[in-house]
């Protein structure tokens, strides 16, 4: 299987969509035939199920799959005695109670109950008792643990949960010194359960690698045990060829690399320069949806669609390149529109809309031969308008917050350059968040900052009435941790402007880049990508029995622990070492970001033999949200 087919056919997004469609098809395999009329039903969800479905299946597709109505499980609902109901909910005590009440009322004709993650025995007994006591036992058609406790945002990107202030998965929660052992165990177990769901959905039993002595190691131990337990369960083995999600992407074992957020804090705070990451930072993109206020003051919601070629091609590109691509597409759409207008005039359809024209077969045929299909043109036009509005809004923030200046100077800091005048840079910041981010990156990147300089910064923050708690936390982290020098981890950072944009952006463009530096970042591997490159060099480190394994490359590989859920006793290293690595899943505990995601995508494109690279995290976190977490941790320091 070559890279293109892997990306289009077999990935975490398409696998989760297939699983969801099977749920909507009353747990029956989905027929490829369009002739089959779907069974009409209602869909009952909780908030987490909504988050899972939202980036994957729009309302239109729900209708195509027979969903006439959808409700939240905690909403007030009327009895629909002739309609089957599909439940897709988390097995929380509250949700189970709502389900039991629905059974007692015989709210629907039949019940297809799908749990996002496995239900407990007491909860199962509670459902059974409600069904028996109300006489609705025969109406419960199926109850299935679906193992879908993750959110697939892209073909190669997933997270376990949507970010929230009180999320149990945050960097703050993991590093809170007051967290109880019980809460930490629950956090580790829930993270491992989410990764187990990912493995089950992809149909893979990976070799697991992680650094020692952090949360990632604890998750690896728990995940390894969960997969081993399931492989021993003959009745419920989720990884057999016969299983509905079973199957193998490659003939070689996949590698799952688990990392702790502490491996790189600077990237979480860095002012970025690529399109998708800028949107997430500035507009706080959530579940692939962007909310903006357009030039006319109207609130607009946009879904960043996987079928949008411009988005698919340029989401990881530097912003000036995106602006040029949007302009180019805009000009092409205008030319096609002009060609259509000229044809309409010559055919006597001046006053008809494009949609009306589409019903005239002969006319549509002539238009198609000239400018391609009209529906495709209209769709492309809507995408161009989307990106024009979004990119213009992003550009406005770039100008007002001087993102280009901040990005350029932070790249120098990350690369260990000492010619950055930090005080002058702080004066150019227009928001308190930007000031804190610049200072924290400076503290992370500098091996030593003189006491007098620190006092100067603290005085600057006090003058601006900015809470310095986040900076205190970063300062303590640097002084007490054994983190490598950040500038060494970011070797290769920087920007270049030489001649790249000589033909870009005429004065007629809607996205006028005047006053903004037209630069692109130098390509280099971020710390996480370097960790992955080291980890997939070979399954050495510490075996499942805790015995050190011989290093395959002499590059500090003994810092890793290695788990193979398929091996019960002996670790046959030689049987695995040296095999090509074709499929890698990278997962960060404590929050992830689009910059790391894109860096891994770029790395995979240039890695010989690597067919699929998937990036996951507990949750995607904006720099502002991460700063708030660091601030909360710093406040605990007093």
TrEMBL record:
<dbReference type="Pfam" id="PF00995">
    <property type="entry name" value="Sec1"/>
</dbReference>
<dbReference type="InterPro" id="IPR036045">
    <property type="entry name" value="Sec1-like_sf"/>
</dbReference>
<dbReference type="InterPro" id="IPR001619">
    <property type="entry name" value="Sec1-like"/>
</dbReference>
<dbReference type="InterPro" id="IPR043154">
    <property type="entry name" value="Sec-1-like_dom1"/>
</dbReference>
<protein>
    <submittedName>
        <fullName>Sec1 family domain-containing protein 1</fullName>
    </submittedName>
</protein>
<dbReference type="InterPro" id="IPR027482">
    <property type="entry name" value="Sec1-like_dom2"/>
</dbReference>
<dbReference type="GO" id="GO:0016192">
    <property type="term" value="P:vesicle-mediated transport"/>
</dbReference>
<comment type="similarity">
    <text>Belongs to the STXBP/unc-18/SEC1 family.</text>
</comment>
<dbReference type="InterPro" id="IPR043127">
    <property type="entry name" value="Sec-1-like_dom3a"/>
</dbReference>
């Amino acid at each position: 299987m070559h890279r293109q087919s892997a990306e289009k056919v077999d990935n975490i997004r398409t696998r989760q969509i297939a699983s969801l469609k099977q749920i909507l098809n009353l747990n029956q395999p989905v027929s490829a035939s369009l002739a089959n009329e779907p069974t009409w039903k209602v869909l009952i969800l909780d908030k987490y199920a909504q988050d899972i479905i939202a980036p994957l299946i729009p309302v239109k597709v729900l209708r195509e799959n027979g969903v006439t109505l959808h409700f939240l499980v905690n909403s007030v609902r009327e009895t629909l005695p002739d309609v089957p109901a599909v439940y897709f909910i988390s097995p929380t005590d509250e949700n189970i109670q709502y389900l039991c009440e629905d059974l007692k009322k015989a709210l629907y004709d039949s019940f297809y109950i799908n749990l996002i993650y496995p239900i407990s025995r007491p909860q199962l007994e509670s459902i059974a008792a409600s069904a028996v006591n109300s006489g609705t036992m025969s109406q419960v058609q199926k109850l299935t643990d679906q193992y879908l406790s993750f959110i697939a945002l892209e073909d190669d990107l997933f997270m376990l949960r949507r970010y929230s202030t009180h999320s149990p998965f945050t960097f703050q929660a993991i590093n809170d010194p007051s967290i109880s052992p019980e809460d930490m165990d629950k956090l580790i177990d829930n993270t491992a359960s989410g990764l187990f769901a990912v493995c089950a959905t992809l149909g893979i039993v990976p070799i697991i690698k992680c650094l020692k002595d952090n949360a990632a190691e604890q998750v690896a131990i728990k995940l390894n045990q969960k997969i081993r337990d399931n492989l021993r369960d003959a009745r419920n083995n989720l990884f057999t060829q016969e299983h509905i999600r079973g199957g193998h992407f490659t003939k070689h074992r996949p590698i799952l690399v688990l990392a702790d957020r502490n491996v790189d804090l600077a990237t979480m705070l860095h002012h970025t320069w690529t399109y998708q990451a800028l949107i997430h930072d500035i507009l706080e993109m959530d579940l692939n949806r962007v909310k903006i206020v357009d030039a006319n003051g109207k609130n607009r919601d946009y879904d960043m669609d996987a079928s949008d070629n411009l988005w698919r091609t340029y989401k990881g590109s530097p912003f000036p390149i995106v602006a040029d691509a949007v302009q180019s597409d805009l000009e092409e759409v205008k030319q096609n529109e002009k060609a259509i207008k000229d044809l309409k005039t010559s055919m006597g359809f001046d006053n008809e809309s494009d949609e009306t024209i589409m019903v005239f077969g002969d006319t549509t045929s002539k238009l198609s031969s000239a400018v391609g299909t009209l529906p495709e043109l209209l769709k492309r036009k809507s995408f161009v308008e989307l990106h024009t509005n979004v990119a213009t809004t992003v550009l406005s923030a770039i100008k007002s917050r001087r993102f280009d200046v901040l990005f350029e100077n932070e790249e120098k800091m990350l690369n260990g350059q000492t010619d950055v005048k930090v005080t002058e840079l702080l004066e150019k910041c227009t928001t308190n968040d930007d000031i804190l981010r610049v200072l924290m990156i400076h503290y992370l990147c500098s091996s030593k900052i003189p006491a007098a300089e620190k006092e100067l910064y603290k005085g600057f923050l006090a003058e601006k009435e900015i809470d310095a708690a986040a900076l205190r936390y970063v300062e303590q982290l640097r002084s007490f941790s054994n983190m490598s020098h950040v500038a060494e981890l970011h070797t290769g950072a920087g920007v270049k402007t030489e001649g790249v944009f000589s033909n870009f952006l005429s004065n007629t463009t809607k996205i006028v880049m005047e006053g903004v530096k037209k630069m692109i970042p130098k390509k280099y591997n971020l710390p996480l990508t370097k960790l992955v490159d080291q980890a997939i060099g070979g399954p050495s480190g510490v075996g499942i029995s805790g015995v050190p394994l011989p290093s395959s490359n002499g590059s500090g590989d003994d810092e890793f622990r290695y788990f193979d859920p398929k091996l019960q006793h002996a670790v046959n290293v030689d049987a695995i070492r040296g095999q090509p690595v074709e499929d890698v899943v990278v997962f960060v505990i404590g929050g992830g970001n689009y910059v790391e995601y894109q860096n891994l995508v770029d790395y995979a494109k240039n890695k010989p033999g690597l067919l699929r690279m998937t990036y996951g995290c507990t949750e995607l976190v904006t720099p502002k949200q991460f700063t708030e977490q660091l601030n909360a941790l710093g406040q605990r320091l007093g």
